[in-house]
Write a structure and sequence with these properties.
The protein has 229 residues and is mainly α. It has helices spanning 13-17, 20-37, 43-66, 72-96, 101-124, 138-145, 147-167, 175-183, 188-227, and strands at 97-98, 173-174. The protein has a two-stranded parallel ribbon. Helix 2 runs parallel beside helix 4 (72-96), helix 4 packs antiparallel against helix 5 (101-124) and helix 6 (138-145) crosses helix 7 (147-167).
Length: 229
């Protein structure tokens, strides 16, 4: 007697769009849109909405694994939301601090390194841009291989940017003046900024390594393509 083994039903396009982690992603987008719309009129509400959106970045990843709803669309939506929200905050900081080029450069490094990393991931046929087990850099492997370490660096980076946003009392503040004023007195807030600075610095080093590693993969792909008959 033949056993009829039915294949699992393919999810429809609409069902993928309506995955729980993807819905969380849409909510994040809406929160960020509203947050940046009121960023100059209500600093406190902006920070609350921005940070909730950032926390949801971890929740949607957990939901994707919990409900078996991991998707390429969700991963791309997640990264785009992260990059655009951070980029918008850096643009705001570039307008209230001098030199503004500092924050514009950080924006370029953040977007450039992640874009190259995603593109090199597709060239290698990997399922995730976080798969860097074959990297020669121990820091790069540690960053993507240890969730807690990566979470600390990402949280530290966002906390530092939000702190600087809250500290800006008037346009054209000089960045070094604000940072130096924090060192003059020890307070919970200055300690928080100090801890954030350390994690922020690690993340920028990782971004540089990520950009160089991904660029090398793209160049090697071009070389191998030319060598084919």
């Amino acid at each position: 007697m033949a056993i009829n083994k039915s294949r699992p039903k393919k999810p429809s396009k609409l069902s993928v769009y309506l995955y729980i982690p993807n819905i969380i992603g849409y909510v994040r987008v809406l929160m960020n849109v509203y947050a940046f719309a009121i960023c100059f009129s209500n600093k406190q509400l902006f920070c609350i909405l921005y940070f909730i959106s950032f926390v949801c970045d971890g929740i949607d990843g957990w939901a994707a694994r919990k409900f078996n709803q991991v998707s390429t669309f969700g991963a791309v939506l997640d990264m785009i939301t992260d990059r655009i929200s951070t980029a918008c905050l850096l643009v705001i900081l570039s307008q209230v601090y001098r030199p503004g080029l500092t924050f514009v450069s950080l924006l370029a490094l953040d977007i450039g390194s992640h874009w190259l990393q995603m593109y090199s991931t597709f060239l290698l046929g990997k399922a995730s841009h976080k798969d860097v087990k074959d990297s020669t850099s121990w820091l790069f492997r540690a960053y993507y291989g240890n969730r807690m370490f990566m979470a600390y660096c990402c949280v530290a980076c966002e906390v530092l940017y939000i702190s600087l946003y809250l500290l800006a009392e008037k346009p054209t503040e000089h960045l070094m003046d604000v940072l130096m004023s924090l060192t003059k007195e020890i307070s919970p807030f200055s300690i928080l900024v100090g801890l954030s600075l350390f994690g922020w610095a690690i993340k920028q080093v990782v971004n540089v390594i990520q950009m160089k590693t991904a660029a090398d993969i793209c160049v090697l792909h071009d070389i191998n393509k030319k060598e084919r008959p």
